[in-house]
Amino acid sequence: MLVLTLSGLLALTSFISCVSAQLASGYSIGPLTTSSAKWAVKVCDVTKYGAVADKSTDLGPPLLAAFEACIDGGVVNIPVGDFAMSTWVTLVGGSAWAINLEGVIYRTGTAGGNMIYIEHSTDFEIYSSRSSGAIQGLGYEFHSQGEYGPRLLRLYDVINFAVHDIALCQSGEVYNMIIRGANEGGLDGIDVSGFNMHIHDVEVTNKDECVTVKNPSNHFLIENIHCNWSGGSCFGSLGLDTDIYKITYSNIYTLSSNNMMMLKSNGGNGSVSDCLFENFIGHSNAYSLYIDAFWTDLTLQPGNGVLYTGLTFSNWKGTCAAGNTRPPIYLNCPSTEPCTGIVIEDFAMWTDSGSAEYYKCIDAWGEGECLRGGSAHTAYGTSTITVTAAPDVLQALANAYTRTSRTGYSAAKMPNDLATPFDISSSIPIPTIPTTFFPGATPATKRAYP
Questions:
Q1: pTM above 0.90, yes or no
Q2: To the nearest 5 percent, what fractions of the chain are helix, strand and coil?
Q3: Per-residue pLDDT for 350 more than 90?
Q4: Is 208 assigned a catalytic role?
Q5: What is the CATH number of domain 230-417?
Q6: Which of 62, 206, 259, 288 has an alpha carbon 20 to 30 Å from 351's alpha carbon atom?
Q7: What is the distance between the alpha carbons of residues 152 and 143, in angstroms, rounded to a whole number?
Q8: Cα-flanking dihedrals φ and ψ of residue 10, to 5°?
Q9: Quick one: pLDDT band at residue 143, thresholds 50, 70, 90?
């Protein structure tokens, strides 16, 4: 599996200027020491420790040596050039340090695991000061043989950190980034769990998770995300002792993906609560808004089911692929733990094929569309609504009656939408980091290098 795994983390990004209610007050976000201050302390250039930009000499040992030299503060510098990496490194500890990746690291080793694994560290960032750095996993060499390669980058128990302005090809992570994988399941983008995260301005191409929240998690702000032929964004899979709350997804653009947002579980217990999903644009996705409490890819877990409660879905626009067979609203909640307090408002999706679509709610209570009104929190079975006219037409009639001017399902597109996904048998080209990740939105943090 090619995935950036983030767990037990305090923060993802730095230098943010906006504050959200879903982020926890009183806690810093990102590195505590500025990049310039780290450069002033010490620079540990990998070429001084044996690295050669010849696309042949192994970068692994020089990278480890450079880290050990800068473990107490400074910058591990990987300069412009093509570097091969055949042995993986685990970088343990460190404080007030950084990796500046200007060159391109090409995977030449064949081991599994993690190419670069950073753990038990504080005040850290990995970035490219010129936005030219990349890690090329060459995953097609594995995928074409029906196998999976290593993760490119993994962070565990890292406090006050940022990952930004680099490209990961055939893997993933957490602002001003582009992550590209082939069109095959198991090639995750960003999987994250923890506390007080800000993930923003990221583009993901793959056929698995785009930006996915794992258990346990709380106080996340995830915004300006471009799922460009992907599996889509998710919560889960969730089972025992689920504890997820105060998560905001905002400005999420999803093209030709499995879903725009899916919350998935199978049995289990605990809850997902007090979350907001606003300003979603979708084009030609299989599912749009999807809660599945019977996700059979996960073995049935003990318990009455995960409770989904206090979730708001607001301002969703665009199209689904076939709304007459896969409803753009599909809430499949457990009868033993019905969904409650769900709000769906300003939802306008229309089908690419056919002339009708339907919404389906099973044991789901709340306000809007097919939800059962009230707060009884008891099982009732299935409620469906059939829609036989595009929301633009319905909205025009509603506007005439209410004298409002809300829009229908029409939604903008991104200029860099892919026409087709990436094949598993070919190398994925290293892209340029985009300057926007959601229509009309400016990145919260400008690129390190224009």
A1: no
A2: 10, 45, 45
A3: yes
A4: yes
A5: 2.160.20.10
A6: 206
A7: 15
A8: -90, -40
A9: low
The CATH code for residues 1-200 is 2.160.20.10
> DSSP state, 294?
B
Kindly name the residue from 208, 219, 226, 292 that is annotated as catalytic: 208
Catalytically annotated residue among 164, 198, 226, 283: 283
d(CA 91, CA 68) in angstroms, rounded, equals 8
Question: How many CB atoms sit inside 10 A of residue 52's CB?
Answer: 16
The number of angstroms, rounded, from the C-alpha of 343 to the middle of its chain's C-alpha atoms is: 23
* Most confident stretch, 181-190, 369-378, 417-426: 369-378
Q: Using CA atoms, how far apart are residues 294 and 304, in angstroms rounded to an integer? A: 11
Q: Is the pLDDT of residue 216 over 80?
A: yes
Residues 6+ apart with CB under 8 A from 191: 3, 4, 5, 6, 209, 212, 214
- Measured CA to CA, the distance from residue 55 to residue 103 in angstroms comes to 11
Pairing of strands 89-92, 104-107: unpaired
Say if 1-200 and 230-417 have the same CATH topology: yes
Report the alpha-carbon distance of residue 83 to residue 49 in Å, rounded: 13
**Which amino acid is it at 5?**
T
Q: Round to whole Å and give the CA distance between 178 and 189.
A: 10
Q: Which two tokens stand for residue 169?
A: 């090809």
Q: CA 151: distance to chain centroid? A: 16
pLDDT of residue 253 exceeding 90, the answer is yes
- When mean pLDDT is compared over 29-38, 230-239, 397-406, 420-429, the highest value belongs to 230-239
Query: Residue 128's Cα: distance from chain center in Å?
Result: 20
The angle subtended at Cα 430 by Cα 426 and Cα 436, nearest 5°, is 125
